[in-house]
Amino acid sequence: MHTTPIEVESPEPAGLSPRRAEAVGMWLFLAALTMLFLAAMLGYLLVRGRLAAKTALKLEVPWSLWLSTGILLAASGAIEVARRLVRREKQRSFRLWMMASLVLSFLFVIVQVPSLILLLDTHATMKARGVGLYGLTFALILLHAAHVLSGLIPLSITVRRAFRGAYDHENYSPVSRLVMYWHFLDAVWVMMFGVFVFLR
After folding, report:
1. Model pTM?
2. Quick check: 179 and 80 in contact, CB under 8 A?
3. pLDDT digits (tens, 9 = 90+) for 26-63
4. Is the N or the C terminus of the chain less surrounded, counting Cβ atoms within 10 Å?
5. Structural contact between residues 147 and 192, judged by C-beta atoms closer than 8 angstroms
6. Rounded distance, CA 136 to CA 143, Å?
7. Which residues, including other chains, have CB under 8 Å from residue 169's CB and lie 6 or more apart?
8. 3-class secondary-structure state, position 31
9. Between the CA of residue 196 and those of 84, 97, 121, 129, 136, what are the distances in Å?
10. CA atoms of 45 and 117, how far apart (whole Å)
């Protein structure tokens, strides 16, 4: 009796799934950004410490930075709500909260423009006295704002796809990655703003 041997396919080597690989890549990206912002803040603290030893000058924080802080926290909260809604297949509410996050994020940048202009003008005045604190503060805020602006591109794309029905309770990883990024920007901004306010 002739029998045909059954070929058993060997299992594929274990590795990261695409979603898992994307999550790991996102964590590595955020880790790199964390090092960047920590180094920038360390430089700020060193300059601030040296300045404090020479003069009693205090940093005047523009009032609009308080407003922009609330707006950024609201934008991050909105996209977190959107993520929870898409997991529950509440598509209409999900899209509205995604749009709210996009609008608030744009508003954050717009509200920060007057603060940046004011800081730059003050820096021009204080530079003659050998004080570069306002210029350094301007640079740090601009660095953070640049990362918000860069995040607006994938956020806009994700919102557009959301309105086209691209996401559901099984497929929403792009939304989750944006949530991670926006929460990271929140944490960085709160840390920076806290330093500006309490180490005046």
Report:
1. 0.84
2. yes
3. 899 999 999 999 999 998 888 887 776 666 567 788 89
4. N
5. no
6. 11
7. 86, 87, 88, 89
8. helix
9. 33, 31, 18, 20, 11
10. 22
